[in-house]
Specification:
- The chain is α+β, with helices and mostly antiparallel strands.
- It has two domains: 7-59; 61-195, Efflux pump adaptor protein, beta barrel domain (Elongation Factor Tu (Ef-tu), domain 3, Beta Barrel).
- The chain is 39% helix and 26% strand.
- The chain has six helices and six strands; from the N terminus they run H-E-E-H-E-H-E-H-H-E-E-H.
- Helix 4 packs across helix 5 (137-143).
- It is elongated.
Amino acid sequence: MADKADPAGKAGFRQEALEKHRHDERYDTMLQLVGTKGWLSLLAAGLLLAAGIVWMVVFPVQERVSGNGMLVSTPSGIQAVLYFHPSDGQRIQSGMAASLDPVSTSRDDYGYMTGSVDSVTPYPATAAQIADVLQNSDLASQWTADGPLIQVFIQLDPDTATVSGYRWSSIRGAEVSVHPGTLCFGQVLLSEKTPLQLILPGSENN
């Protein structure tokens, strides 16, 4: 007589097969999710890498030094004279770009005046020497309280389209005239390099 089929065995086999099928479906789903997340992660990493490369190559890092000063009358016309700590001032050279903020105007409203370095004193100026230029001994004493300063003359960029007669970073500039004796705050641009040039100093020559 043939052996009778075991219902319990068949049921167990079917249950085992069903569990295996479910396991395979879950595994396939996990692979799909991991694959999608993996591609998204790679895409995000690629975009970040591309953005980093663009930043390193395109966007420059500027190094500036700041000093106090005044607009003064010189044989060349109105110039700004700025005073810097010796460690900063000795790095300044003729021709470097400069920006000026007269105390009588607002940078937020009008921007800043532009110019370039005309001359730099080779040695720090004393309070007496500064007072002779500014015609203000009290101010000279105040600015040199921590020691002599490097004296830098700034040639202002002319612009006949503005009220002041000088160029501003904004289109119209401040609608005021500038005159000797006006106090100002100034900055000189020492260098402008991309991060790549800072990392690889010789890259700017390539």
